[in-house]
Design a protein that fits this description.
The chain has 125 residues and is mostly helical. The protein has a domain of 56 residues. The chain has five helices and no strands. The longest helix is centred in the C-terminal third of the chain and has 14 residues. The radius of gyration is 26 Å and the shape is elongated. The two termini are 46 Å apart. The relative contact order is 0.11.
Length: 125
């Protein structure tokens, strides 16, 4: 809205009704309150129905490799990253297709045989 179109009382840009001492007192009272453990607001593996150790290391590494092959890696080093773009959606669909297809089974088999270290992952170049 342009300034000329504004009708009403001017908006204060400096000062305020709350005094610094009031803010400090409220902060100190909040800091003395007990807070819930992170598990109470994040949840635990049990609350998410995830059994600890449900996957083998080779399965986790295979999942990571497929994500990297689909182009979901190195997003922090891209010049432009738009998580809701059509390109990112395409990459995500490709990852889920590979994750639920024969590529995942083949990657797990490749990691479990041939003497490859299980921590070896694909490069996201």
């Amino acid at each position: 809205m342009p300034a000329e179109a504004w009708v009403g009382a001017p908006i204060a840009t400096t000062g305020g009704a709350t005094k610094r001492a009031d803010v400090t007192a409220e902060l100190q009272s909040l800091q003395t309150q007990r807070h819930a453990a992170p598990q109470a607001w994040v949840g635990t593996l049990a609350s998410a129905n995830i059994a600890t150790g449900a996957l083998k290391r080779s399965e986790v590494v295979a999942d990571t490799n497929l994500a990297l092959r689909a182009g979901l890696g190195n997003y922090t080093t891209r010049i432009y990253y738009e998580p809701f773009s059509a390109e990112e959606a395409r990459r995500t669909v490709q990852y889920f297709r590979m994750r639920s297809g024969p590529e995942y089974v083949a990657e797990v088999a490749r990691l479990e045989s041939g003497g490859l270290r299980l921590t070896q992952t694909a490069q996201a170049n």
